[in-house]
## 1
Amino acid sequence: MARKKRGKTKKSAATAEREYQGIVDMTRSGVAYIMVEGLEKDIRVKQKNLNTAMHGDEVLVKIIPHRQKAGRMEGEVLQVINRKRHEFTGVLQVAASKTFVAPDDEHLPHVLVAPEHVHDAKPGDKVVVKILRWKGAGRLPEGEITQILDPGLTGTNDVAMKEILVSHGFPLVFPNEVMQELLHLPERIPDTEIQQRKDVRDLITFTIDPVDARDFDDALSFRILKNGWFEVGVHIADVSYYVLPGTALDEEAYRRATSVYLPDRVLPMLPEKISNELCSLRPHEDKLCFSVIFQITPHGEIKKHWIGRTIIRSKRRFTYEEVQEIIEAHRNEDLDSLLHKPANEPFVRELMLLHHLAQHLRKERIAHGAINFSSSEVRFVLDERAFPVGIVVKESKEAHQLIEEMMLLANRTVAEFAAKYRYKQQPIPFPYRVHDQPDEEKLKIFSAFALKFGHRFDLSTPQSIAASFNKMLALVQGRPEQQVLESLGIRTMAKAVYSTENIGHYGLGFDHYCHFTSPIRRYPDLMVHRILQQCLEGHIVPDKELEKKCRHCSEMERQAMEAEREATKYKQVEYMMQHIGEVFDGVISGVAPFGFWVETIDTKCEGMISLQSLASIDEFRYSETEYALIGIHTGKRFRFGDTVTILVAAANLQKRQLDYELVEVLTQPAGSRKKRHKRS
C-alpha cells in the first residue's frame, strides 16, 4: 500500500545537505520511513538513527550523503518536532531487577518505571504509562503509571475502549493542573459581564439534541418581527469566556482538539464541569453565548445579520425525536396557516416555521452545488455492562436537517464575515474548514462504474460534477444500486480539513466556511470565537502558528474518527459473537484481491469472505474498474453492492475481526463443487 505523503521540505542554503520535515512510519523491524510531502519515496531511517523518534511523531530528518538503497534516501532524525503520543497501554513487567512496561504497540520501546512511579500497579497488570523523560538515543524512556486497567473491576470491553483511546493519543484523565484551574472558574455570571452583552433572555429559545446528550452547545431562538420577517438566532456556548489562552485548560483542550464519541462513552475535550455544566445551554439557566442573529423573509431570503456576544436563557430542551413528531403531525400545514396559527401549542409554530426555512435553505444549497449524500448512523443498544444486545440504524430526518441547516448558515456567515477583515492589507489568518475537489483518477473510475447503471457524469467542471452527483443520487433513491453508488461516490471525495488557506468547501458548495457552532467539542471552533472577538473589538493579533494548529486539529480529528471506527468494530464483533453459525442477508461493501467484505443489512456488521473460502466455486481475479472479483472459468462476479447470504463463521475480539462464509458455497453438494485449478 502506498504511504500518504505528508510534511514539509526544508533545504539548507548553507550546505548541500538536505533536511526534511515529515511523519515517522515505523516497521516491526525497528526501521522507520519518514513520509514527506512532495517526495516520491519515503526516507529510510535505521533504528540507531531515530534519536528517540517513535511511530507517528513529526520529525526533522537530515539526509546522510551517499547513502541510498533501491533509490531511496537514508537519513538521521535531528529533532522530534511533535510527539504524537505521550501515553501508552502495556503490561508491567520485572526483569533483571528493572521494572518496565512492555507496550501493546510493537512499534514502541519498553518504558522504564522507577519504584516511586509504579504506584499501586503489580507485575502482570495492564496499565497506562506516561513518558516523563527520554535522555537520548540508545537509552529507554522513563515513565510513570497513570492508570491500572483491571478487567476484573470494569470488564474486558471497558479496558478495550480505553486501550483504543490511548492508542490514538487521547489521555483518559485530565492533568491535576487542569482540575485545579476548574476550582477557580466563576459559578455565577458577573453583572459586569452581562452588561457588556446583548441580552436576549426574553426570546423564545430552545435546544434540539440527541436524547442522551448532556453538552448542549447550540440553541435557536425565533420570533416574528413587525414587518413580517423572521428573526432567527443561532446561539453557541461561549467557551472562550471560561477557557483562556495560556491556561492549562486551553493547552489540554488544544492537545486533545476534539471530543471522542465511542459507542458506550464520550471522552470530552473539556472537563465535564465546563462541557456539561458551565457552558451547557441547559433550560431555565442564564448562559453566555456567541450568537449570529438573522433577519429572514418567510421565503428564506436573508436580509440582515448581527454577530456578537450574548446572554440567553433556554426555555425548553427538545430531543430530535420530539421535534420529528411535531413536524410529522403538522406536515400538511402550509406557510400561511402556520403564520396565523394561534399560540396555544407552545413552540409548535416556531419549530414548524424553522422547519420550512431549513427545507428552503437545503434546496437552495443543493441547487447551488452542494452534494446531497444521505447519511445514517448505527447505534448499539447496550446492557448494564455496556455489552451490545441490539443494533439500531438511525437515519437523518427533518429534525436533524433543521439543526444542520441553521448551523451551516451560521458557520458560513461567520467565515464570510472574517474573510473581509485585513491586517496590514493582508487577509487575517483564520481556521477555515476546507474541502478540495474530488480526485480526478478516482472520479474517472467511478463515473465509468456509474455508467453501467445508466448514470452519465459530466466531468468538465467542478459544478457539472456536483450536478451529476445530485442527479444520480436523486434517481437511485430506493433502488438496489443506491447503497453501492452512494458509498463509492463518497470514496471519491477528498477529506475536509482545517486550513488558513481558503480553497472553499466543495461538498457544501460554499466559498467560505468554518466551524463555529461546537466549541465544547472542537478546538477549531474555540479558535474561531477568539479571532471573531478580535475582529469585533477592532484589535486583531494574527496567530503565526495558526496553520500548524489547523494541521494538528485535522490530525486529531482523523485519530478520533479512527478510534470511533475501531470501537464500533469491537462492538460489532461483541454483538456477532452471540450469532455464530447464524445466517444473515448482506451487501458486498468492499472488494480486494484476497476476498470481499459483506455488511449485514439489518445489523450493519461487516465481515470478510476470503478468496480461499470461494475455492470450491472457481478461481477469481480482481477487477479494480468493476469493483469485483470475477471467476476465471465460470465468469461469476462478486461486485461491490451485490446482495449475498452469509453465515457467521468466526468472531475474534482481539483482532476485531469477523469471518463470514458464503451460504451459496456451504449449500453446494460436495460432488458439484468446482475443484480449484492450479495456475500454470
## 2
Amino acid sequence: MTKRYDFLVVGSGIAGMSFALKTAAKGRVALVCKTTLDEANTALAQGGVASVTNLAVDDFDKHIHDTMVAGDWLSDPAAVEQVVKGAPEQIGRLVEWGVNFDRKDDGSYDLHREGGHSEFRILHHADNTGYEIQQSLIKAVRECANIDIYEHHFAIEIITQHHLGRIVTRRTPDIDCYGAYVLNTQTGEVDTFLAKSTVMATGGVGAVYTTTTNPLVATGDGIAMVYRAKGTVADMEFIQFHPTALFHPGDRPSFLITEAMRGYGAVLRNLKGEEFMHKYDPRLSLAPRDIVARAIDSEMKQNGDDHVYLDVTHKDPEETRHHFPNIYAKCLSLGIDITKDYIPVAPAAHYLCGGIKVDLNGRSSINHLYALGECSCTGLHGGNRLASNSLIEAVVYADAAARHAAEAIAHVDFRTDVPEWNDEGTRHPEEMVLITQSIREVNQIMSTYVGIVRSNLRLDRAWNRLDILYEETERLFKCSKASREICELRNIINVGYLIMRQAKERHESRGLHYSLDYPPAPRNID
C-alpha cells in the first residue's frame, strides 16, 4: 500500500515529536515508531535540559565555553551558538506543551548543576525529566488532528533514485529522498510511505553494546539507513559512556544514576571506600563524562573490580529522597538505601555524539532528508557531549528543520514511479537463534574491542569479526522476509562498522575516543 504525506517522521522521541508538532499546521504528518510512543531514549533521560535562565550569574558565553571545553574544542562554534542562544525560547515551547519543570517557592526554576557546567543551569522535573517531557509531548501529539501515528511500524530503507533503477554511489550528486519503505510489524506487510520531507529521529546506538542505559530499540536504524543510501555519516567514534549506571548484573538496559547526583555532591569511591578522582582531574567527580568514565574504568582494571561506588550518604537524607525519588525507589527495591549505603555503579554506553551529518537547518547530505536528535551530527557535541545539552539540541534543531521543511515542501512533488517493496522469493527465517546469536556476538565484539579504551589491535580484531557477521547477515537478509529482528541485526552491524572504521581513522586520542596507540595531548580546561 502507498501512503502520501507532506512530512514523514521516523522516530518518536523529543526530536521527532517536536518536529511533528511544529509542522502539523503546514501539512499532513506521519509519525512512525517501531514500538510505542512511550519507548524512546527521551523517556529515560533523568538529569534535565541545559539552558541559560538565571541571568544574575549565568550567560550565553559561559554555556558556549563549557560546551566547547567538554567537546575538546572539536564542536562547531556555529552549532553551539545556535543551540545555546535558541535554548530559552524552546524551553518556553516545552512549557507550552505541558512540560512541568521544578520551581522554587518564588516561582523561579530550581536549577541543577552537572559535570562540566560552570553554573547551575539544568532545568529538571525531579530525577525523571525525560519521562515528563515524553508524556507531555505524547499528549500533545495525540491531540493534534493533522498527525497520524503509526506505532509498531519499522522503517526498513529510505527511498532514493536507487529504487528507481539508477546507480547511486557516495560520489553521486543530488541524491533525493522520496520517503521510506515501512514494515508493519504486526501484519508483516511493507508499505510505501511517500513524503515531500522525511525526518530521521531514530535516536542512538546503545544497543550495539552489551551494557547500555538506552532502551533496546536504540539500534541505530536511521544512521544505518542513511549510510546505506550513501548519505554522509560523521564522528561515529565518539561514543559517550555514562560513568554511573547502576551496577546490577542481568539488567539490560542498565538503570541510569543521573549526573545531577554528582552535581548534588555525591562522591566516587573504589571498593576499598577510597576517593580516587583527585588522581585523574582537578574537577574531581564533576569532571566531564569521558574523564570520569575512563577514571572508573582504570580503577576497576587496576583493582580487578567490576564496579565502583557512588557515595551520597553524607547528604541530608530527606533532601536526597526529595531530589532523586526514582533513584531512591529503584535502589531500595534492590536492598540499597542510598541515604545509608553506597551505590554500586559502572560505565555503560549512553550517547552518540556523531551520526548523520546535518547543517544548521538539520538537512542531511541527501535532498529532502533531515536528521534530528541523537541520530544526527550537528557539530554541537564535538568530541564529547556536555551533560543535558542533548534534549535542548533536539528541540532547537527540530524548530530550525520545521521552519525550513515547511517552506521547502511548496517546491516538492511526490514521485509517482516508486515501486512497491518486492519480497518475491523470500521466506521467514527458519531459525531465529541465528539472528539472536549474531546480535550477542556484535554486542560482545563492540564491548570488548571498541569500548571506552581502544587500540589498533583491538579495532583490527573488531573489523575482522564484524566483516564475517556482515557477510552472513546480508545473505540472510536477501532471502528472508522483512522482520524487525533481521533489520535490527543488519543495522547494528552497519553502525558497529561505522564506529570501528571512524575510530581507526582518528589517529589521536581526543574527546571520547581514547587509543592506547596515541597518547592524549594535554587537555585545555580553561
## 3
Amino acid sequence: MILSASSSPIGEHAALALASAGGVSPLVRDLGLCLVAAGLLAALFVRVRIPAIAALLVAGVGLGPAGLEAVSDRASVDTIASLGLTLLLFVIGLEVNLGALLASGRTLLVTGALQVPLTLAVGAGLFLAASQLGVAAIGGGYGALYLGVAGALSSTLLVAKYLHERRLVDTASGRLCVGLLIFQDVWAIVFLAVQPSFANPSLAPIALTFVGTAVVAALAAVGARLILRRGFHVVARSPELVVSLALAWCFGVGLFGANLGRLAHAIGVRAEISVSLEMGALIAGATIATSPFAYEVVARVIHLRDFFVTLFFVGLGMSIPVPDGAAVVALAVVVAAVAVALRFVVFLPLLYATGLDRRNAVGTSARLAQVSEFCLVIAYLGAQLGHIDGAQVSVVIFAFVLTALATPFLFDASDRLYLRLRGALDRLGIRSRGVRPEAESETPPRLVLLGFHRVASALLAELERTTPSLVAETLVIDINAPLHAQIRQRGAHVVYGDLASAEVLRHAGIERAAVIVSTVPDELLRGVTNLAVVRQVRALAPDAIVIACATRVSDAAALRAAGADHVFRPPTEAALGLVPAIGAALDGTLPSFVVGQGEAHGRLVPGAEVID
C-alpha cells in the first residue's frame, strides 16, 4: 500500500519540511552541508600540513552564526554529534587492558584522586589573584573557579582520538592517560552534581555518583559474562551481526546507567542516582575488551565513530562566538597557556612522586595538556545559574579551541620535549630512575596465520610435531569462533577478526611479525581476495615475509607483484606430494615408500589437527 503525503497531519508537516528544503529533509540538508564543508576544508588543510581538526572547526565557524548562518537546525546537529563522544568512549573501553590499567597501582589511583583537586586549587588561585589585581574579564570568585576547572580537566575526546590514531593506548603512558581521563570524567560529573548548590554544597551527590558507577560496572561485568558472551558465539559467523550486538550492548549499558535513578525509584529506593551515557559506553566497552570479538568490533565501529566525531567538531565550530573585544581572546590565550603549564607543574611531579619514570611522566603530562569538552558544558551551566556571564563562556570556548589545535603537536613533540627538559628536571630533583625504555606490551608474533581452515589446521599440527616452540609465537586471525578454544589449547594465540579489515590486522599487530601466511583460498573467503589481503599486509608490514595462497596458477604473478614473497597453491602442493607416491606404486616400492614417509613426516593420527 502506498500512502500519500496528505493522508495525515504528520505527512503534511513532513511534506512542507521537505518542500521548504528543496525536497530534502532539513536535518539531512544540515548534515550534508557540515560534511561537505568538513571534507573540502580537511583536504585543503592537510595539504598545507595544518591539523585536520582546524578544518572541522573552521567549517563550523563558516556555517554557524559567526559565518554564513547556513545551518538551520543546530540542535539536531549537536544531538547527532554527541553520539561521537559516546562511540569514542566505547572504542576506548574496548581497547582498555583492565589488568594493565590496574597494574599501574599507586601511580594511577593517587594521581587520579589528587590531580583534579590540586590543579583546580592552583589554577583557581592564580586566576583569583589576577582578578584581585584588576583583571576584570575574570569576573571575580566564580569566574576564577570556572577558569580553574578549565585548567584542571583534559579532553577525553581529543586524547582518546590521538592515542588511538598513534596506537599508544596500550603503552604505559597511554594506559595512564586513559585511567586519568576516567578519574577526570568522574570528577567532572561530581562538579556537575554539586554545581547548582555551590551556596550550600552536599556530599550526597558525590557519593551517589561513585555508587552509581560501581553498580553499572558490576552489573555490566556480570551481564557480559553470562549473556553477551553467549550472544557473540551465536552470531559469530556474521561479523556485521557481531557489531550490531556490540552496539546494542554499548547503548543498553549507557541507557541503563542514565536511567538508574528511575529504576531505583521503581524498586522503592529514593536516590537521585545516575551515570552518564558516555561513562556507560566506556564501561560497556571495557566489559568486552578481553573478548576475542573485540578486534572485529573496534575495526567496524571506528569508522562510524569518526563520522560522528567529525560532526562534533563542526558543531563546536558553530558555537564559537564572535569575540567580544580583544580582552576575551587575550584571556583565552592565558587560560590555554595556564592549562598546558599546569600539566607540568602539577601532573608531572605527582606522577613522578607516585613511582612513574620521568620520561613517561613528561609524555603523559604533554598528552593531557588541553581543556576538556566537559568544561564547555560546565561553563554553559554556570552561565545559566548566574555564576558567570557570556564573556567567561567565550573564554573557555576559545581556550578549548586553542589547546585542541595544539594537541597533535604536543603528542608528536612529547619525546623531544623530554630531551629538552632533562636538565631542568635534574635541577628540580626529578631525576632518572634508570628505567629502560618501555618494552612492547606483548611479545610480537613471529608467525601470523590469516584465516584458519584445512591448510592452517594441517600447518599448525605440523608445527606442533616439528617445531613446538614456534606454536607459542604463532597468531591466528580468523572469524570461525567455535574453533578458537581448540587453537588456544594447542598453544597458539588467536583473535577474532575479518581479514578484509585493515584495522583488524593493524590492531592485531601483524606489522611486528616475521612471517605472515594467507592460508585460505579465494573460494572460501568472503568479501576479500588473497590479492587484496596481500596488498593490505604488505602496506602494514613492509618488512615481513608474506606467503600467499593462490587458487589458480595464473594468480601467482599478480600476488607476487602485490608483495607476496612466496605463493603456494594447495592442489599443486598436493600433486607434488602425490607424484612420488604414484611413482613408488608403479615401481612396486609403495610399502617401503609409506614407511619412509611415516618416518620423515609422521603418520596421520585422528585428532592431530583442529579440523580433521
## 4
Amino acid sequence: MITRRQLLGTATGALAGAYLRPRVAYARDRKPNLLYILADDHAGYVMGVQGNTRAYTPNMNRLASEGTRFARHYCNSPVCTPSRQSFFTSQLPHSAGVTVLDGVLAEDKPTLAKQLGASGYQPAVFGKMHFNTAGRPGLHGFDLAETEDIVSRDWAAAVGPTPDFGDIRVKPKWRPFQDPASIWLDSDKLPFPRTYEQMESTWVVQQATNYLREHKDDPFALWVSFREPHSPYNFPIEDRNDFNAADFPVPEVGPEDAGQIPLVFRGLTDKQKQGIIAAYYTSVRFLDRNVGAVLDALRRLNLENDTLVIYMADHGYSLGQHGRFEKHVCYDPALQVPLLMRWPGHIRSGAVVQDFTESIDVPPTLLEMLGAEPFSLNHGQSLSGYLKTGRSTNPRQSIFSEYLENEEACIRTDRWKLIHCSGKRFRLDGYMTDDPLPGLTIHLFDLKNDPGEFLNVASQHPEVVQNLSMQMLSIFRATHPQAAEEPAGKSMNDLLDWYLRPRDAKVHCMKFNFCQPS
C-alpha cells in the first residue's frame, strides 16, 4: 500500500504547481481584435506545414508562416464536448464539469467569452460550439451566439431545397452506428449534395465576413467554428475528385491491436479504409479553403495588423492507426491538434515551438495577449513567452489528457506514454471491443523505440509506471473539485479509478440502441 505522503512527494509537487500557478494580465493601451477559428476533428498531422505532403492546406501553411506554430500541441480530452468546454474555461474536463459527449457546461462557469466581455469586448460566435443547448444572446458570455442549431436552421432556409445533381453520386443521410461504418465514414468518397457556394460552412464564412465588416471600427472577439473535417467528412460537389483513394496507404496495425479494435470497424476492407482516408483529406482541403476565405476577409478590411488570429481544433483523429477511425482514445493521433497564432508585430513570424503545450494553455495566453483579466481558477499556463521571445520560463515536460467515457487518462513525456484505464465502465460511445469490461488495464509505450505505440512494456518498466501514475494522481488531486472527498486507505490504482469516474455521465440509450447505466 502506498501512503498519501509518498504519492505527493518529489516530482508530483512540482507538476501539481504547474496547474495552479496564478497568471498576470498583460495591459495594452489599445484593444486588439480576436479572430478565433476552430475546426472539428482536425488531426495535427494532416497539415502540410507539419510535413504531410498529401495534405493540401495552403492557407493554414500561410498562417503558420506569418505567425507561430505549436508543433506538439495536445488536447486535454479526445472528444468534442469535454475538450471544447475545457479550453473554453481553462479548466481540465473533470474540473469544468463536462467529461462526456452529451455533458452540458454549467451556466455559472467562467468562460473565455465572459472574461473578454468583462474587459470591454462583445464576444460573438458563428458555428459549432457543442454546448448541447440552444444558442441565444448571452449564452456562456456570447452577446451573439449563432451556434450550430441556429446556423443549420438559417443556412437551410437561405439555400433552399437540395438540388438534383443527376448522375453524380452524393452522400446519404449521416446515420452513424445505424449504417455500416463504410457508409457513415464515406468510404466511397461521396460529396455532400451542394456546390461550394451552397455549403453550410461557406454560409458561416459569409456571416462572419458580414460581422467583420459591420464591426471593423470597434475591437471584436469573434469565434468562427467549422464542422469539418468531422465525419462524414463533408466537401462540395466540385471537390469530389481532388484525391485518389489508391494514393493513401493503410496504416499499420500492431501485434497487440486485434482485441482493442472497436467492433464497428472490424469489417472494413483495405480499399474502404483508403476511401475513408481520402474523404477525410478532401474535407480538410475544403476546411482550409474556408479558413482562407475568413483570412482574406480580414485582409480586405485592413484588419490584419490589429487582429490576433488563432487556428486550432478540438482534438485529433485516427485514420486507421491501430485499426480505428475516430478519436475516443489516448493514442497520439487522437490527441495531437493544430495550433497556429498570428498577430503582426506582436507574435514571432515563421516560428515553430517544439515544447509540449496543452489546449488549456490557450485561454490564459489569449487573455494575456489581449490585456484582459485572467481567470481566478486556471489550469493552463500562458504561452506568451513563446509568442514574443521563443522561450518559456516553465516549459511543460509532459501532457495530460483524459477520456472519462472509457474511464481512461494518459500522461505523455518525450520518452514515455502511460495510459491508465479502469476497465470497469461499459462505454456508451459505440466503440465497444470484444471485451467491454476488461478490468484494470495499464499501457506503457516507449515512444523513443516504439513511436507507433504498438508494444505495451509496462511489465518491463514498473518504476516508470509508478512515477507516471503518481504524476497523474497529483494532477487529479490538484484540480478535481471532489479531491477533498477522496476515499482513504485505497491503492494508487483504485484512487485513479475513483477520479476517472465521469460525474456528469448520462444515459444515452436512444443514440446507440442499447441502454446501460452510467
